[in-house]
Design goal:
Elements: E1 18-23, H1 24-30, E2 61-69, H2 74-78, E3 83-89, H3 94-104, H4 112-130, E4 140-144, E5 150-152, H5 153-167, E6 172-177, E7 184-185, E8 195-203, E9 214-222, H6 237-245, E10 254-262, E11 266-271, E12 277-282, E13 287-292, E14 303-305, H7 316-327, E15 331-332, H8 338-348, E16 351-354, H9 367-380, E17 384-386, E18 406-409, H10 411-428
Parallel strand pairs: 6-8, 14-15, 14-16
Antiparallel strand pairs: 1-2, 2-3, 4-5, 6-7, 8-9, 9-10, 10-11, 11-12, 12-13, 16-18, 17-18
Bound molecules: 1,6-di-O-phosphono-beta-D-fructofuranose.
Length: 429
């Protein structure tokens, strides 16, 4: 007689057919009737031995889909066994998603190295941020960037981390960063150079020493033929200039953009032109896994997010708009960290803004590596991003560090503001 199959050491029980979010203790509690399941070695299927309701637990976690299989043996039929197949639906990793996108959208295939390089840099930066206090990485570097801002130690370090990760792909002709005075030409080292990247390596770094959310923001554009060097290019300076100028493209030319939020969890929010996906860094496996598929900003929210300390200097339209939101019972939230405030707005809805005012007519946020990438994400998620008078993605930059008023969020909420602006402009005729 055939020896019964010895179940492997780690086994678990699975409840009735259907889809279940499981963890080992939960499984055991649910087992009602005896069942027999055969486990295929290569896949994380679960075992239930015949007639024994209580079984040894195993550290299974995640989503299990269970299907009922026909009984095979007379023995099973006689004992009223149930054959179930349990497949553990592991969440998709970023790497798997990129491969899937290459199949579904072949035109995005050449973006893959840049996305995975950004993710790797994001993991490194997440670890630097998390350990800033214990590794003496808080505080100032003692230098200022071209905008006259005192650089944090981590501003400089994270800039190097991201720069090295992106340039190692060989895909970039030029990169521009909040921490670089001028765009950096990579033409001589690039082997394709088909892209230009603009990024803010650690946005909101002024919040870092207080352990408040910070983030990395990036945008990618195609560079065109100017950034490709050939052996005949004796003097490439002319081409370098043409390539550097390519950095000043409107956000509408972005082919990928996103941010990595360093907060209670590390979340990589990304778009390559087909909607917005969110990946959470799973510290247990060191991988970004898909946790926020096809993000859509709610049509309308219940939160407004502005630094109201500046409200006396705002234009009357914006003052009226915020008053109307207060009347409608909207709540106020403001972290003072762009990535944190935009992430909350994407998930919960409402409006975030850093408008121009009497003191700073162009506001504070930089168009190329703050406003445009965030506007691209917001629009891909069904939201709106505007200066109040112009669509952010239509603005052609004149300067790498140019600032623009920035307001974004739920379409219905932002439209309310645009209507008031249009109304006031019509009145002024
Ligand atoms: P950087 O740290 O990259 O310069 O970012 C600027 C920033 O901190 C944004 O993250 C944030 O939205 C804004 O400034 C907050 O400004 P304020 O303190 O004036 O409200």
């Amino acid at each position: 007689m055939r020896q019964p199959i010895e179940p492997p050491s780690t086994i678990a029980a699975v409840p009735a057919a259907g889809t279940h979010d499981v963890c080992s203790t939960h499984l055991l509690a649910d087992l009602k009737e005896p069942a027999t399941i055969f486990m295929a070695k290569q896949a994380p299927h679960a075992f239930v031995s015949l007639g024994a309701p209580k079984l040894r637990s195993t550290n299974i976690w995640g989503r299990v889909s269970v299907s009922v299989l026909p009984l095979e043996t007379r023995h099973q039929r006689r004992f009223g066994a149930v054959r179930l197949r349990a497949a553990l639906d592991l969440p998709m990793t970023l790497g798997q998603w990129v491969l899937q996108q290459e199949r579904q959208h072949p035109e995005t295939a050449d973006l893959a190295p840049l996305i995975t390089a950004t993710a790797t840099a994001g993991k490194q930066i997440a670890s630097l941020v998390a350990r800033a206090g214990v590794s003496n990485l808080t505080g100032l570097q003692g230098s200022v960037n071209v905008q006259g801002e005192e650089q944090k130690k981590l501003d400089v370090l994270t800039n190097e981390v991201l720069k090295n990760a992106l340039r190692s792909t060989g895909k970039l002709g030029v990169l521009a960063s909040e921490e670089e005075n001028e765009p950096v030409s990579l033409m001589e080292e690039a082997y394709t150079g088909d892209f230009i990247a603009a990024f803010d390596p650690l946005d909101g770094s002024s919040n870092l020493d207080a352990a408040i959310a910070t983030g990395t923001i990036f945008g990618v554009m195609r560079s065109g033929e100017h950034c490709l060097t050939g052996p005949e290019d004796a003097d490439i300076s002319q081409r370098q200039m043409q390539c550097l100028v390519q950095t000043l493209q409107p956000g509408a030319n972005l082919v990928a953009a996103g941010y990595i939020l360093y907060s209670s969890s590390v979340i990589f929010m990304l778009s390559i032109g087909h909607g917005v996906q969110g990946f959470s860094l799973d510290p247990a496996i060191g991988e970004f896994v898909l946790t926020h598929p096809d993000v859509r900003v709610p049509e309308r929210g219940k939160i407004y997010s502005f630094n109201e300390a500046n409200s006396d200097n705002w234009d009357p339209v914006l003052q009226e708009y915020i008053r109307s939101m207060k009347k409608k019972g909207y709540s106020s939230r403001y972290i003072g960290s762009l990535v944190g405030d935009v992430h909350r707005t994407l998930i919960y809805g409402g409006v975030f803004g850093y408008p121009g005012d009497k003191k700073n007519p162009n506001g504070k946020l930089r168009l190329l590596y703050e406003c445009a990438p965030m506007a691209y994400l917001m629009e891909q998620a069904g939201g709106i991003a505007t200066t109040g008078k112009q669509r952010i993605l239509d603005i052609v930059p004149r300067d790498v560090h140019q600032r623009e008023p920035f307001i974004c969020g739920s379409p219905r909420d932002v439209e309310d503001l645009l209507k008031i602006y249009q109304g006031s402009m019509a009145m002024r005729g």
